[in-house]
# Entry
Amino acid sequence: MTAFAILHEVTAIVPLVGVYYVLSYFEPKVPFPEDVLKEGNRYVNKLREYLGWPRLDPGSPVLLHLATSYAIVKAAGPLRIAASLALTPWAARWAVVPVVRVFEKVWPKLRSSSKASK
# Structure
């Protein structure tokens, strides 16, 4: 179950970043009302000012690219789940089990040293 959860999150985060950078690089025209984009940027700029971050230009496509990336990753959910299920045995064998074995070896030593210091 741990391997599946890790894979499921990795198959969400990596494509989200990848899709965002592809959109930012190629600057495709996403059909979206310009006035709504400007209003959204105005609203987010208030939050960015509060956090001390630099403001976005009124026509900046950053938020549009973020929202589009999120929508694409969510739409690919069934593919992500299928890939996670297919790769779970491999991930468990090569990533999760070795880490668990290291903790099993180290944990008794950590527990015994903490009891000795008391």
Summary: The chain has a mean pLDDT of 91. The two ends are 36 Å apart (CA to CA). The chain is about 80% helix and 0% strand. Residues 77-116 form the longest helix (40 residues).
